[in-house]
Each structure stands twice: as C-alpha cells, then as structure tokens.
C-alpha cells in the first residue's frame, strides 16, 4: 500500500463494541488474502469485532450491524465472514433487497474461492444461488428477501445485506432461522436510509444499540452527526475509509450536485432525523385524531413545562371523555420573558382539578405565584414521576387511550421526536429532532395526561349489615 497517498479514516466515527479478549479473525483474513486480495485496515479491525468469541467459544456479538457510505466495499467484510464460515462448516443465509445484489454477492464469493484454490460446488438459480464446500459441509444460500423467505429452515449465520431496506415483515420471517443454531450470528450491513427507504429494522437496531438497550449486540458506523458542507473534503476522508484505495477525491467531486441531503446520506453517512425515525410516528398519532369533539366529563388537568434551556414555557390540558379516553390539547408555548401572567389567568378562569409543573428554571416561581392567588398547590414531579409520565404517554399512544384534535403545532412536535435517557435506571424522556421545534409543548401535554390518567375516582364506601 502506498503510504504517501492520503487515506480515509480507518476507525468508525461511532461504535458500540462489547469487551472481549479473544478473536478468530486472523484465520479469516489469511484465508481471504489467499485470493490475492489485501484486506484494508478498517476491514481487519471490524473483523476482530465480528469474530470475537467468549470463554465458551461463542460469538460475543450475536448481532452486529455496520453502516458505511456507498462504494467503500462494505460487503467485502461479509465475504471474509462467509468464506470462513464455509470453511468452518457453517450453514449461512445471505439475503439482499434486490436480486442483482444477491447474485453479485454469489459471484464475488465464487471468484475469491477460485483464486484461493478452495474447492466448492455451486448452484446457479436466479434469486436462489448456493455454494457448498463438501469437505466441511459448509454452505451459503443467497436469497432475495420476501416476507416468507427462510421460513422452516435453519442456519447458523444470517446476513442482511442492503439492511436499510429490511422491513418488519421480512424480519418476522427471517429472524428465527438462526434460533436452533448452537452458535448463531446475524449481521446487518448497509448505508443510512434515504427518505424513500422502505425498511425500519436497521434504524431501530442502530438506535437500540447506541442507546444501550440491547444485549450481545455490536454496531459501527462512519457518519456525520448533522447535515454538513458537501464541499468539505476533510469530511469526505472522515466518513469514507476506502477513500484513497478504492476511489479518489475526483470520484467524489463528480458526485457533488444540487441535492445536498442525498450527498450527506450517501457519501457522508448522515442518518436523517425525519418522521421515519420519530419515536412516535405520524401514522400512530393520526390514529388518535377525533373527527368531532368528544363528550368531556370531569375537570381539567393542566401540564406546564419550562424548557430545559430556560427559553420557553408551554401549557397543555387533559380531560377524560365519556368513552374513558384522555383528550389532550395544548394551550400555548411562550417565551419566559413574557412572564407567567398568561398562565395564571388561565388557571384562575378554568375549572381545574390538578396542575403539574416541571422544569427547574421556573416551577418554584410559578408555584409561589399560584399561592399568592390562593390557587390549589401544584404537583412538582420527581424525576421518577417524570419518567413514569413519559412511559404512560408512550403506552397511551400504543394502546390508543389518548385522543386529540390534530393541533398543527402539537402534531409537528409529537411526530418528530427521539428518545433520550433520564435518570440512572433506564428511564427515558423525549427530545425534538429539530432545533426550532420546542419539545416543551409535548412535555406539557404528557404531564397533563399523566395527572389525568393517574387520578382515579374515589370509590364510595359500602356499609354492609
């Protein structure tokens, strides 16, 4: 390798790798390089993680995902893993979104086996190609993914190529194919999804691993965190480990066009933060919309949230309906510079059962003002109670016990949210995906919902004789 040539960053920009002391990667790299190919440094380093084993000789990462911008040779690591799997006698299922992709992967493995002098048998059937090594009993089947493919069959290794297109229906059909294996492993490899990508499994897997919500799983990616300058060549090198080996700066220069978002996704590895990644989807929220106002019963519950940055304060209300749902509606979100008079005015005029105020930047001041006006003392929730409020909001949406009138401002916030960690025991809250959209509006609504849903009617005491 010519060391005078500038090379792309060989280390993932973000990764989660479980600790290990032993890896079987050396044999895999040696067998791959018998073909005359030379593994790049980033491929060797990722192979260490992929082939890591515990004290029982089992894979440390039973699930491993990685994302690299296009044309960096991401499937070469899969080839390394599959060739070694064939030599180890593993049963492997390689799946792809397109028939052309699965076929070209089959051809690539055949070509390297030929060059390495490894004897094999192959079956060429479009969409169902196969390679066997009689000596070891190892086999790889190449399939185009469907919602039924793989049912009733057992494998040791499941490869999800073009993982950005992997759908939940396909996952339901495929994830159990490795269940019976003594040492199963599933590998997801792809690029960040575009707004047109149909899959959600890759996004959800990435989020779960990065948030520490999975066991036995690893992740690695080359990416920019936010939309960036497409002309910044340093970012080209930061996010493309094969720049300088497989392709050049001139190649990327030819890709630069008017679609900056597409370039950020395809070349800089950006994971877009649009509705498809929202913790609460547009469809889920739309399912809760009422077409006419329901019949309300009981008093109002008010949620007030002072933003974490201290800039705004939002207020929402919740009320029970005749059908035992909780109806939520936002009143307003204003700058704290406007003071609390608009809040107090509402609290004095409405028929209110309970007020909940969260946000250290303003809750005590407002509570004091409420006392001055002889209003009922509010609830100032603990961290544990806020976590519970967030969880109840999520459950209310899933169970469709919440309803709303589709306020544009509230809908915008709700359908563009991501989860964030709260506390030290696995609790979560929400954050906005856009800097100019204040999550406080939804936080106030979920506090009102929490107060309303938690307030059970007092049962009349029965006296029996």
Automatic annotation (TrEMBL):
Signal peptide: none annotated. Transmembrane segments: none annotated. Coiled coil: none annotated. InterPro entries: P-loop_NTPase (IPR027417), Terminase_largesu-like (IPR005021). It comes from the Bacteria. This is Terminase.
